[in-house]
Amino acid sequence: MSSDFESYEQDFAVLTAEITGRIGRVPKLVGDEKKQMVANVEKQLEEARELLEQMELEVREIPPQSRGMYSSRMRSYKQEMGKLEADFKRSRIAYSDEVRNELLGDDGNSSENQRAHLLDNTERLERSSRRLEAGYQIAVETEQIGQEMLENLSHDREKIQRARERV
């Protein structure tokens, strides 16, 4: 069983080394290359998580006398995995900042474009609010009409009951 664990350890070491190298390259890449690299790193991180799960299963199968040593190794591997994920998150944040700057643009017209965009959104919001108010008014009127109909039906029922009693 420990031979399976050791082969998983070797796979994990190779994979984490590859991930570390790729994470370091993410901020330096541009465009589609960067997107591809981010996707590859995400896929490799998922593989590393799966390897950790397999290693945990192997540790559970190891006799209790030697399980302590393997458990401490697992803790260090989990810490390493957490560090890799945090590094990747930081590199992705740098990536998303670049994408945001690319989308917003650095030219002087960006503030005018943003203002126009905000005005359009405000106008759209006001139209939606008016439609909602109109819908609310229709709902209130419908409720009033329904209430009047129920009262009329109640009066008609009383009349019919009185007529039955007379007959």
TrEMBL record:
Keyword Cell cycle annotated: no
Superkingdom of origin: Eukaryota
Stretches of the chain forming a coiled coil according to its record: 31-61
GO cellular component: cytosol; endoplasmic reticulum membrane; ER to Golgi transport vesicle membrane; Golgi membrane; late endosome membrane; SNARE complex
Domain Vesicle transport v-SNARE N-terminal intervals: 1-91
Subcellular location, principal: membrane
Record-linked Gene3D superfamilies: 1.20.5.110, t-snare proteins
Keyword DNA damage on entry: no
Membrane topology designation: Single-pass type IV membrane protein; Single-pass membrane protein
Gene Ontology BP annotations: Golgi to vacuole transport; intra-Golgi vesicle-mediated transport; intracellular protein transport; macroautophagy; retrograde transport, endosome to Golgi; vesicle fusion with Golgi apparatus
InterPro entries hit by this protein: SNARE, v-SNARE_N_sf, Vesicle_trsprt_v-SNARE_N
Protein's recorded name: Vesicle transport through interaction with t-SNAREs homolog 1A
Phylogenetic classification of the source organism: Eukaryota, Metazoa, Chordata, Craniata, Vertebrata
